[in-house]
Design brief:
heterodimer; A: mainly alpha; MetI-like fold; 13 helices; flat; B: alpha/beta; D-Maltodextrin-Binding Protein, domain 2; 2 domains; nine-stranded mixed sheet; four-stranded mixed sheet; 37% helix
Amino acid sequence: MQQVASSRAALVAWLQAGPMMLVFALFFLLPLVLVIIVSLWDYNEYQMIPALSGRGYTDTFEGCLANLPELCTIFKTYLKTLKLCFLVWALTLLIGFTIAYFLAFHIRSTTWQILLSLLCTIPFWTSNVIRMIAWIPLLGRGGLVNSGLLHAGVIDKPIEWLLFSEFAVVLALVHLFTFFMVVPIFNSMIRIDKRLIEAAYDAGATGWQTLWNVIIPLAKPGIVIGSIFVITIVMGDFITIGVMGGQQIAAAGKIIEVRLNALQFPAAAANAVILLAITFLIIAMLSKLVDLRKEL
Amino acid sequence: MTKKTTTEQPTALNRRSLLKGAAGITGLAAGSGAITGFPYVMSQEPKVLRYLGTAVNEGDEISKKCFADTGIKIEYITATTDDVTKRVITQPNSFDVLDTEYFSLKKLVPSGNILPLNAKKIKEFDNITPVFTKGELPNGKKIGGQGTAPWKVLYLEGEGSKTFSATPTEFITLIPTVYNADTLGIRPDLIKRPITSWAELLNPDFKGKASILNIPSIGIMDAAMVVEATGQYKYADKGNMTKAEIDLTMKILTEAKKSGQFRAFWKDFNESVNLMASGETVIQSMWSPAVTKVRSMGIPCVFQPLKEGYRSWASGFCVSKGVSGKKLEHAYEFVNWFLSGWAGAYLNRQGYYSAVLSTAKANMSADEWGYWMEGKAAMSDIKAPDGTVLEKAGAKRDGGSYDDRMGNVACWNAVMDENDYMVRKWNEFIAA
């Protein structure tokens, strides 16, 4: 009797998970498997040749041993991407955490909390091309910032690195993606039992001690989820890096785009697999920090 | 846009009405449908062509005029040059008519996804400018043929052939439509001295104020023009470099990039306009209509003729391999309409050149023809197709006449044999 009941429960569970599994298999696993297969094919100027070939990979790591100690293209590119990724992650975390803290602990009414977090979505209202064109009047050589500083006598010739530089890329990415930090961190913070904070104060903890020993540990799941969002997006981004970097800054996604445009699909797929593997590694390390399943 | 054209009624119903009864009925049905607001049942298959191409030829005005004249409804599928090629390779059934550049044929023809058109069915074929058919001007002067020059890839050996024919055949890969001679755009007000050579693009005087087009195959040719202009190397064919030549060219580009010569690379028409108009760049590779756009904003900009010559490009029509029967007839009717003059004049007025000069001339005023094609001073204000004033009376076109500009073409946009190697080197250049 009990056996029948439990096998029925199992069946119901499978049925409930079924649709999601099906969607997941069809639209995620299957394409991923195809990408991996194609990455191992050969190609010519206009078509993929379904014959096993490691060319996509060997071409990608071309010169990595021969050119030592100088770094090869792919290592240089990933170093640059990782550097941008780290800067954007650190800044979005700092700013996102501060905003979330403000929203969770200083704003009392739920309406205002919702309204203010919606304000954070404003950067998403414009398209990439418009955004690039819009930054010129602000950060350009004759832009608002430069002319303001010139008039104030702070500088005597325009600052060039404000636009089409790593600074501009980081600025634009932080501007865009801080939102992805704010939401999960806010979500974690709002669930913190306020009595814990009161208890900390009562026990004589300073504000910083409360932040460090109570709030941050309890907001950790939000921090990790936000970090995963930001890191995965920035690792694969090539549009914002291209537009704000004046197309002169290498990005892992940019390599894939150039290969695709030259119709070298297997080489592009090989690069996509490499990018995926590296991003997986980073996320695996992050998940070591927090057991997300236990926390949620 | 699609909706707008369905409800429009052809204005030329009376003309050639016997031949076009079918179109007329459809048109009337569409018209009455719009009036009553009820859906209509189609009595006959409507004449619709899905037109894949870049934005160059895809004017709303052109599709409207085409519908009025022929009853053919054009559905534009607009993409960048790279994406057009990608689409032909991966989704050949997603379009009927293809408008693309000759240099992409080296990839498209071997794929077997496009069909050539038959020269015998093109009314104006014999009037197509000899630039395409023989590589010379109407006055007989030979044109530079480095790169993927159109006459090298214009003919196929047979209907289903994947081999280009060196001698004329009736199987035409792309029926020519539009072409131009590209050079550097400059801001004379910010440079304040004459610019006469491609070498100026990498001149340290313009450090942080130069730009090139971010399409590897075109960017490297602009660089090759500079290398030759500075006397560092002479290429056998700038459009088909050897590995050693690619290395040399990319090395020079990389050095320029590292020393901060380039402000940004551009890929989009509007990006190039904004870089130039804002003064972020003062010298860059550019397209003729982009220069016109900057000028129409009241900012001085010159499409500067240079002593080493122009880098040219050309595009034309073919059809998808999935097109046959009625659809193919419509495609021929459309291509014939396109070459019949109205569209040619429209393109000429934007600073491009049309493939059949005689029919375009018949659709332009003598003053317009003189300004755009003969390098003469405009007698009255020169207007864009939409009516905005482009140039005041007395102005002359940069680079002068058709013969002066097309006669000085040094090379054509190209796909190299060593394309794969070049692409890898380009990624290296970006990472440097």
